[in-house]
Every structure is written in structure tokens, then in C-alpha cells.
User: Which sequence fits this backbone?
């Protein structure tokens, strides 16, 4: 018989192959026009000659416009009429690469760009050959130079476009200062030159501070003040160049996206999609553009008028008298029309620049509409009849009106053009990708076939534990069905809390029938632990942000309790190292060897908390050696990791040299050392959760002894359930916005995708990794107490991997099936696609790397030693 591990080793790559086929069909690039827009011979005159485009990464609207904003100079420009403010609504996924595509080409980004965003070496996202407002500057008869300083994503998107540039690393989020200083240091030289038409500046410090400490970090006010000083420097340049050379400079300040309340982004919450947008120029005040600043507070993040972020492209193109880019679905912002001759003074304005500009915008958008909806180009006999029909009919009716003779001569033409543009934008924004259905079907067929094999192997294994098999089959089926409802995907944590309760209740009933009082008490305590876990974080969408345990512990009132719990967890870590890793050495050596890595870890976590402006009791700071700053945190992280590595090396060598062969001892010690690393990669507010994990592990370990005949399969199912519960209990969800990067750069001095990727995975999947190794410990305990002749490797391979593989395979199949069936659903890119990405992470990383490779490695090594 072929070993189960070998079968799974063969099935995993085949299922991944099916996934790749599906992904290739599901995540294609949207069809785009190649080439460039035709030159307009009668375009309205330019309002601005030069453009300074200043992007502040993650510049949420309230960072600029609220009463608490530190950007006072920018607000003074708004109140004096020298700047026009807007809230720019960014389309998800709210990450940098697709947002830059949106604000340069005006097109709808592909969801795959969210994945390509993290690939520094990827060139498939290049915009070479695609039209953009940058390329329209390059196409001018007498083009000036284009310069860029900041996020090197621009260099990846526009290779060979900039005449002078200096890219900065965008993913090293521990850097708050140098990453922006590297941009600003070029300004004094460039502002003395006059050979450029466009200057792109992309500052990253605000985004990095958000990832590390959230939007209310102690570093945020100073960083925003620094950005405000840059705005002042650029505006003074615009004033000077207007006086000396009579050239008008347009300064555009904007965020590529916002951030949520914990400083992350990628999803579609109000904070993530609300980016600040300011158009500024010394010539604006002549046209009566003053606005109150700061404005009255809003309920959300919508300050002033709300525009679509892609409208930036049409607006810049119109203001500088360039053609609208070929793929632009942006609409020229109405408030900017005031900078040409007014149309409100007469009922008839012949050949007004405003109507001419909007008509060119409409003609450019109509070209895209014809490609997307062939019915739009059919002849129209009575436009008035169509205006009451479907959206397509309305577009046809309005276009027929726009094409009528003398249309430009009426004031109502402005309203008609804007109605056409907004409806066209709406239609084009929600058009789906050109899916490769054949590739998706091939992928689904492959995964379906291999998933069914895995499911059959799990249900028809030699195990006699029919209760566990029945619960597993029901749970997997219900979970698969839930994938097809957007609300159930957004609130998936409720399913796992319910399923965990149901599974513990089933075990409680079995223990009652077996008259096992001790098992009943243990299961009751596990239910209590589950209840606490489910209230630790309110995740998902419905109750996200509502008051929970983690929020209380993060406040000044709860900080004392938080750090008391953190201290207790570190004492537990010390106890586990002392008794399970260094038990065979002298007490003094055991104490020193256990105490050193734990105190190093505690000092590191407290330094991180202080650096992120978290509430730390002053008494604790006084008695613990701490330091802040990037270099100090880097050194402390390296010291902690080095201590953990030394512990693991000592554990392996001591096990090898031991005269008594004990596989259980090795597995148990490896588990407790790994927990040190997991705590190191966990946010301060989540460290107390490990006390609950420890309690669940201890109770489950005792429970493993109670069901000797059926324990292996039950242990594995419990492990799978606790993995999911712990993932959501720590604040994660199926939104990209909950990906935590605050610990992704611990011990890393510069961006490197492999170590940063590993640290990111560990920090977000610390709970599932904990319970993977916890399940391994329980299986080894059951083996030692059940008097079975089977080895740990045999138990793990036959009872463990089959169930684990079947579970993850069916989850993957369900997620792929949901994306296939619901590919035209309104939430396909905001709910189902992120869920597919998370499922791939569970399948490849959690199952493939942790549950299979790592656990199998530990089991094999334990048998060898």
C-alpha cells in the first residue's frame, strides 16, 4: 500500500495545478485599448502649464480636512480659495499598485493587481503601451521632462518614462523617516530647474506609521505636519514661477487610498476608500473657489464633495489641455469648470469651453461603452422614449441628444453631458472581467476530482470513529454551502464559533453516555474558553469596530490588565521552557536558559508597544530595560530570534544525546519553543489570547486520554476547528484589510519578499500554527497512554493528514465554485475574490507547509531521535 503521506504529496501539486488553471481564467487583465487618444484640435485652453502630483500613501480624508488635522497650511489654502478640496472614493482593492493605475489611466483595476502589488520583481503590471495622463505629456509636440521621486511602484508601472527619478522601497514599513527624506531631498534642486512639466512625488511615511501603530499613532501628527510643510514648499514654488515666468503650476495632493481604524487597507470599509484630494494653484482664488476649512465634522470620512478617484485623470487632462486617455472612465470634476469662461451669465453661450471639454470627455467614454456594450451603437429614432428605459437605453438616448445639431448652444447641455458621463462611468465600473471560462472549468474539474478522492479517503478510512466522521462530513458540507452567500463569507467567524460549540456538545453527550465525569468537566471548560475567545475581537462586517475585549485592553483604563496578562503569559512561557526543554540540566542552568529568551522577548514586545505609542504602565517601564527607535527594535528582535534558535538547537542536541529515546519529549519541547516565536510575531493586545490557547491545549491534552479508542480522528477534527476559531478570534477576517503587517519586519533591516512573507504569514496565522503543533502533541500523548503499537508517524499520517487534506480540499473547491457561479455578483471583487485568496493561503501555506511539511518533519525527526 502506498503511504498516505506520499498520496497527499502527489495530490497537493495536482490540486495546485488545477487552482492555477482556475486563477488564470478568473484573474485575467481587463480588455483595454492600446495606443493613444487622438489629439483634439479644438481643445479648450490650458489652465495650468506644469503639474506637481503629490501622492501621500494612505492619506485618509480626515488627515487633511478634520479639526484635528496637523495640515494647517493646506487648510489655509482651502479657506483662502487657492485650493479646492474633495473626498476621492477609491475603488477596492485599496492597495497601491491598482490605485496608481486608476489615478494615471482612469481605468478600473483588476483584482489581480492586489496580488501583484507585493511582487517587487513583477513586470506583468507595466503600463507601457497603455495611455495615461503621464504619456499624454510625453506626446506633446514640445514635451518637457517627467521626474519622479518616491514609491518605486511608479518605476515598475512606467519603465523608461521618467527623465530623472529616485525610487524608494515601499514595503519596509518600519521606516517612517528615511523613506520620505529620500523624496524631499530632491525638491530643492528640482524646484530650481524649469525643464520639467510633471513632477511625481509619492510619500510613504503615513502608510508605514498606519501599519505599525494605526491612524492615531503618536508619530502621525508630526508626519502630517511634515507633509504640510512639503505642500507649502511646493505652493511657494508655484507662486514664484507664476510671477517670474508667468507659468501656472497645478499642485495635486491626494492619497492613493485611506486606512481603517487599525491602520491597514485593502478592503472596502469607509476609512479605506475615503482618500483626501486637493487641487491647488495661485490662480484659483481669482475664480471664487474658497471653502470653509476645517469643515463641520461628518459622521464618516466624506468631507466636501465626494468624487470618484478616477476622476483625477479626466480633471488633470482637462486642466492642462491634454487628450483624455483611451481607457479613462473618469469624469471631469464639475467644480473645476469655473476656471474657464462662465456659462451662468446667459441662457445661451455659443461654443463655451466647458461644453466643449465635457463633450470631448463624453466622446472618449463613448468609445469604451461601444466596446463593452454593442447594443449602445444601434440607431435611435426617438431619444425621449429611451430615457425612461434601462441604463443602456438611457445611454443611447442621451448620446442621441448630444449628437444633435446646436446641442452646444444650450445651458442644459451641461446637465445632459454630466448625466451621460456619470451613468457611463457607473456601467463601466461594474463590468466584469473577460473571464476565461474554459480555464476556470478545467481548474474546477481537476480540483473537484482530487477533492472527491481526498474526501472519500477521509470518510472511508480504517478508523472506527463514526461519530467524528459524521460530524466532519456535516461540518464540511455546511461550510462549503456557506461559501455561496456573501454575508456568510463576511461573517464566517460565526460559523466556526457555532461549529466549535456543536462539536464540543457532541463530545459532551458522548462523555455523558460513557459516564465520564472528568471528560464532561473538561468539555465544559473548553466551552467557557470558546465563549471568551469569541468576544475577544469583533471581526467581519456587521459588528466590526464595536466594543470588545481587545478594545478595552487597548485603552488607558485597560492597559494595566493587558500588561498583567502579557506578563503572566511570559511566565507561562518561562515555566514551559524550564520544565519541558531544560528539565535535564541543573536547576540554575535551566533557570538562566529559560529566563534569557523570555525576558528578551518581553523587553522586545514592550519596546514595540512604546514605539507604537501604546498604553504601557509607567511602573512596568521603570523596572524593565526598554528602548525605542528603528535600530534598537531591530537589534532586540534579532536578539529574541537568536535566543529562540539557540533554544531549538539545544533541544535537538539534548534529545539526540539523551540515553532515553523519547519522541514525545522532542515533539513537546519543539512545540513550546515554537510558541515563543509565535508570541514574538503577535501584537501586544493579542498576546493574552495565548493564555486561552494554553488553557485549551492543556484541557485538550487531558481530554485525549479519555477517548483512547477514538481519539486520533477526534483530535485532528478538534485541531482543524480550533485553527479556524483562533484565526478569527485574533481579529482576522476574509477582508484583505485585516492582514496585519505590524510584525512583518521584526528583525528585518530592508525589504526582502521571502522573510517578510514568512513573518507576515506567521503573524497572521499564529493561532492556526499553535493548534497544528498542539494537535501533534496530543496525538503523541494519546499514543503513549493508549498502549498502541502504532508509531506517532503512523497515527499522524493515517488519521491526521487524510482528514486535514480532505477538509482543505473541500474548502478550496467550494471557494472556487462560489467564484465561478457568482462571477457576475455585485460583491465578486470585494467579498468572494478575497475569500478565494485566503482559502489559497489556508490550502497552500497552512495545510501544505505547516500541517504537512512542518508537522511531518517534526514527527520524522522525533522518531529518528
Assistant:
Amino acid at each position: 500500500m502506498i503511504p498516505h503521506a506520499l498520496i497527499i504529496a502527489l495530490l497537493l501539486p495536482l490540486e495546485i495545478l488545477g487552482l492555477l488553471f482556475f486563477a488564470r481564467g478568473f484573474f485575467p487583465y481587463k480588455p483595454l485599448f492600446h495606443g493613444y487618444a487622438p489629439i483634439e484640435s479644438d481643445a479648450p485652453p490650458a489652465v495650468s502649464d506644469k503639474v506637481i502630483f503629490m501622492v501621500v500613501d494612505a492619506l485618509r480624508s480626515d488627515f487633511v480636512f478634520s479639526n484635528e488635522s496637523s495640515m494647517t497650511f493646506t487648510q489655509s489654502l482651502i479657506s483662502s480659495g487657492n485650493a479646492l478640496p474633495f473626498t476621492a472614493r477609491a475603488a477596492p482593492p485599496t492597495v497601491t499598485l491598482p490605485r496608481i493605475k486608476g489615478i494615471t489611466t482612469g481605468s478600473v483595476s483588476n483584482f489581480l493587481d492586489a496580488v501583484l502589488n507585493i511582487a517587487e520583481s513583477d513586470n506583468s503590471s507595466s503600463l507601457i503601451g497603455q495611455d495615461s495622463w503621464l504619456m499624454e505629456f510625453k506626446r506633446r509636440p514640445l514635451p518637457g521632462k517627467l521626474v519622479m521621486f518616491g514609491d518605486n511602484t511608479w518605476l515598475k508601472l512606467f519603465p523608461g518614462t521618467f527623465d530623472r527619478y529616485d525610487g524608494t522601497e515601499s514595503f519596509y514599513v518600519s521606516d517612517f523617516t528615511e523613506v520620505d527624506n529620500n523624496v524631499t531631498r530632491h525638491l530643492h534642486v528640482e524646484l530650481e530647474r524649469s525643464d520639467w512639466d510633471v513632477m511625481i512625488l509619492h510619500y510613504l511615511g503615513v502608510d508605514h506609521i498606519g501599519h505599525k501603530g494605526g491612524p492615531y499613532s503618536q508619530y502621525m501628527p508630526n508626519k502630517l505636519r511634515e507633509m504640510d510643510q512639503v505642500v507649502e514648499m511646493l505652493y511657494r514654488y508655484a507662486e514664484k514661477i507664476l510671477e517670474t515666468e508667468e507659468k501656472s503650476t497645478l499642485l495635486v495632493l491626494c492619497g492613493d487610498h485611506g486606512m481603517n481604524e487599525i491602520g491597514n487597507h485593502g478592503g472596502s470599509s469607509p476609512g479605506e476608500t475615503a482618500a483626501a484630494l486637493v487641487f491647488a494653484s495661485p490662480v484659483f482664488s481669482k475664480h471664487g473657489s474658497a471653502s470653509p476649512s476645517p469643515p463641520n465634522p461628518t459622521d464618516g470620512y466624506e468631507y466636501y464633495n465626494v468624487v470618484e478617484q478616477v476622476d483625477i485623470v479626466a480633471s488633470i487632462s482637462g486642466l492642462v489641455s491634454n487628450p483624455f486617455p483611451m481607457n479613462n472612465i473618469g469624469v471631469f470634476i464639475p467644480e473645476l469648470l469655473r476656471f474657464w469662461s462662465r456659462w451662468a451669465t446667459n441662457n445661451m453661450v455659443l461654443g463655451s469651453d466647458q461644453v466643449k471639454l465635457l463633450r470631448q470627455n463624453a466622446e472618449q467614454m463613448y468609445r469604451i461603452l461601444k466596446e463593452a456594450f454593442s447594443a449602445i451603437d444601434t440607431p435611435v429614432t426617438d431619444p425621449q422614449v429611451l430615457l425612461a428605459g434601462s441604463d443602456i437605453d438611457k445611454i443611447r438616448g442621451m448620446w442621441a441628444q448630444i449628437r444633435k445639431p446646436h446641442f452646444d448652444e444650450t445651458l442644459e447641455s451641461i446637465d445632459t453631458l454630466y448625466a451621460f458621463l456619470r451613468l457611463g462611468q457607473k456601467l463601466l465600473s461594474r463590468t466584469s472581467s473577460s473571464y476565461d471560462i474554459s480555464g476556470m472549468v478545467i481548474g474546477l474539474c481537476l480540483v473537484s476530482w482530487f477533492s472527491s478522492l481526498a474526501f472519500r479517503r477521509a470518510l472511508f478510512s480504517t478508523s472506527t470513529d463514526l461519530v467524528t466522521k459524521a460530524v466532519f462530513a456535516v461540518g464540511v458540507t455546511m461550510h462549503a454551502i456557506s461559501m455561496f452567500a456573501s454575508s456568510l463569507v463576511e461573517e464566517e467567524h460565526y460559523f466556526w464559533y457555532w461549529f466549535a460549540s456543536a462539536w464540543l456538545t457532541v463530545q459532551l453527550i458522548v462523555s455523558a453516555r460513557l459516564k465520564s465525569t472528568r471528560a464532561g468537566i473538561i468539555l465544559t471548560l473548553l466551552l467557557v474558553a470558546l465563549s471568551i475567545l469569541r468576544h475577544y475581537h469583533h471581526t467581519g462586517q456587521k459588528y466590526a469596530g464595536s466594543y470588545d475585549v481587545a478594545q478595552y485592553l487597548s485603552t488607558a483604563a485597560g492597559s494595566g490588565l493587558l500588561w498583567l496578562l502579557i506578563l503572566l503569559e511570559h511566565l507561562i512561557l518561562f515555566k514551559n521552557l524550564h520544565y519541558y526543554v531544560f528539565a535535564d540540566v541543573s536547576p540554575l542552568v535551566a533557570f538562566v536558559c529559560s529566563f534569557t529568551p523570555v525576558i528578551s522577548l518581553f523587553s522586545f514586545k514592550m519596546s514595540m508597544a512604546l514605539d507604537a505609542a501604546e498604553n504601557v504602565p509607567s511602573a512596568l517601564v521603570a523596572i524593565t530595560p526598554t528602548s525605542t527607535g528603528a535600530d534598537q527594535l531591530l537589534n532586540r528582535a534579532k536578539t529574541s530570534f537568536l535566543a529562540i534558535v539557540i533554544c531549538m538547537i539545544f533541544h535537538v542536541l539534548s534529545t539526540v544525546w539523551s540515553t532515553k529515546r523519547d519522541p514525545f519529549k522532542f515533539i513537546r519541547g519543539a512545540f513550546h519553543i515554537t510558541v515563543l516565536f509565535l508570541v514574538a510575531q503577535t501584537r501586544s493586545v493579542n498576546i493574552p489570547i495565548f493564555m486561552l490557547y494554553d488553557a485549551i491545549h492543556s484541557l485538550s491534552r487531558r481530554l485525549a486520554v479519555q477517548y483512547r479508542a477514538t481519539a486520533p480522528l477526534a483530535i485532528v477534527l478538534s485541531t482543524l476547528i480550533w485553527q479556524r476559531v483562533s484565526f478569527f478570534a485574533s481579529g482576522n477576517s476574509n477582508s484583505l484589510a485585516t492582514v496585519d503587517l505590524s510584525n512583518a519586519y521584526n528583525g528585518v533591516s530592508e525589504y526582502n519578499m521571502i522573510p517578510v512573507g514568512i513573518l507576515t504569514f506567521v503573524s497572521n496565522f499564529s493561532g492556526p500554527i499553535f493548534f497544528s503543533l498542539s494537535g501533534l502533541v496530543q496525538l503523541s500523548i494519546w499514543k503513549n497512554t493508549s498502549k498502541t503499537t502504532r508509531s506517532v508517524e503512523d497515527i499522524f499520517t493515517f488519521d491526521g493528514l487524510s482528514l486535514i487534506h480532505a477538509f482543505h480540499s473541500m474548502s478550496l473547491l467550494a471557494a472556487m465554485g462560489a467564484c465561478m457561479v457568482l462571477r457576475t455578483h455585485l460583491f465578486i471583487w470585494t467579498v468572494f475574490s478575497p475569500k478565494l485568496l485566503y482559502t489559497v493561503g489556508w490550502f497552500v501555506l497552512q495545510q501544505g507547509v505547516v500541517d504537512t511539511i512542518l508537522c511531518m518533519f517534526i514527527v520524522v525527526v522525533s522518531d529518528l531521535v
